[in-house]
VOC domain-containing protein (Roseibium aggregatum), 129 residues
Amino acid sequence: MNLLMQVSLFSEDFIGLSEFYRDLFDLPEVESLRSDVFRGYMSGDVMIGFSAPAAYEMLGLDERKPGEGDQTAFTLKFDTKEELDACVGNAIARGATLVKEQFMTYYHWYMAVLRDPDGNAIRLACTTP
């Protein structure tokens, strides 16, 4: 059973943040879902959604408070170390911040950790380095 359908980020600049991910990973938009409070892009079978803060109320959720720390981290998979390395440079050029440069994890993944322009954690991983 494939359970994961969508991952969403809330952002004051949800359009700018969605365009960061769209352009960095060449993601196709689900245009039928576009609205004044939402953008969605497909990554394989999983949608990455970007919502304006107005969506908190629409969903009955409390708005995230500044300084609460990381609540989510995307992990995006690459086939080669070279592709991952190129993406790191591209992400930084588009406004991401490098948190931890490329390294080998104890479980033998090649990984880099960044923050997108909105401060969300992104992990880039190559599982077969």
Q: What stands out?
A: Residues 96 and 116 are 5 Å apart (CA to CA).
